[in-house]
Amino acid sequence: MRESVPDPPGLVERLRAGDPVAFEELVRTYQHRVFGVAVRMLGNAAEAEEIAQEVFLRVHRSVGEFRGEAKLSTWLYAITSRLCLNRLASAERRHPRAGADALEDVPASDTGGGLEREEVTTALRQAIAALPEERRIVVVLRDVEGLSYEEIARALDLEPGTVRSRLHRARLDLKAKLERFLP
Length: 183
Known about the structure:
- The chain is mainly α.
- The chain has a single domain, classed as Winged helix-like DNA-binding domain superfamily/Winged helix DNA-binding domain (Arc Repressor Mutant, subunit A, Orthogonal Bundle), CATH 1.10.10.10.
- It is about 70% helix and about 0% strand.
- It has 9 helices and no strands.
- Helix 3 crosses helix 4 and helix 4 runs antiparallel to helix 7.
- The longest helix has 23 residues.
- The protein starts with 10 loop residues before the first helix and ends in a 6-residue tail after the last helix.
């Protein structure tokens, strides 16, 4: 799980001023996180790349509307989540969902432990990919990206209690699917 990291100081102001170096910094700082959320939600690297590009285009076009009530990263996660959920709901998805196989392209954290650890990681990725979208996104944002319940609630426009409930149900689902790996 990633720690919730503060946004780079002054980045929003520089973005609003139209500083092209600031936009490059934004993309460098957040591209892997945005892509990671998208690929975990969509299960398809090509679609995730499209979503990531769209996220940064939307930020570029509407950074002036960002009120700063939440962190910039939370705003990015909100845009990413909405775009992914819209894509999942669309009847005209251009690419069939590749499922857990596409998640193999997402780099795992380097935790060591050899073959058994790799098997657990693969099973976990598959289990997350099989979750319903509304549960999958809270697991990805909380347990993979490290957002707080409040940040997730703001990003998804939900009540914190709803986030907790969905996360609890998702973790129960994951526990059931990964029971054979538990001591």
